[in-house]
Write a structure and sequence with these properties.
This protein has six helices and six strands; from the N terminus they run E-H-H-H-H-E-E-E-E-E-H-H. It is of the alpha+beta class. The chain has a domain of 104 residues. Strands 1, 2, 3, 4, 5 and 6 form a six-stranded antiparallel sheet that branches. Helix 1 crosses helix 2.
Length: 293
Amino acid sequence: MTGGPMPPSNTVDQEPELEMTDSAEISGAVEYRQRIERARSGARSRYREHLAAVFDQHGVAEPGELADATLDALTVWRYIDSGELCICSCHPRLPESDLHDYGFDCVCTRTPEARRRAFNQWRNSIAEFWRSPEGQRITAAEQAADAELAGWLAQQQGASVHSHGGLAPEQWRGDVDGHSFYFRGRHDEWHIELDLRPTGRFVRAMAGTDHDDTVHYQVHESVEGDVIASGTTDTEGYGTTPVERAQFIVDTIRIHLVRRACTHHRDHLASIEAILGTGAHWCPTCGTRLPAR
């Protein structure tokens, strides 16, 4: 996190880790791979029979016609009653973008030297962008937003952010009133986990690369918490700036903690209703809807 000094108890300059599951460390990984291989073998056999039958039905000799028949047989599946195209992902499909020249220029088609050269070109283009006026403008805006967040955190009691950032997903980690939390937002949806604890599963996190592009990893135990809230980006107060998002996370957690500890004045509801002159349908302290009595 950038933007000037800040109390170490509030925030730490650390980007979220990029975690990749190490399948060798996960129980059942071998069985999972075996199931996948069996499924692939079965699918290949079925599609081979399907293509052979289609070729036999068409009796075509021209390569173009044969190619069209093959593509249709593989990728065009229709409802038997309406004739509408089926878009279920269980059927093979053609690329839906021109990424890697529709697959003909995928990295799997290049030599190791060509892959390394392309990677270096990509990395240099990224560095060049951040040196450009547009890149510098974005950097300055992010630094200003981080400075604003640091100032806001410095005024908060019991709230800290250890790391935040990312777009897909956006991730936040920190503590609120002694409870560790993890926030994750992706594809217009978000959730908050509270009271993180070890899971017994281990993941690999990318630690960096050498000058020859060798990737290094660190293995650590993953943690999970109880999901206390979830929703979409349309939720009131979700916000767009780091400060607004931090406020949203902290408020959501504190509302949950208050409601979890609240007794809802069960021993005093009759007196409260007498003062109000009506039945109490909501807790006056935490706002929880009370069960019908």
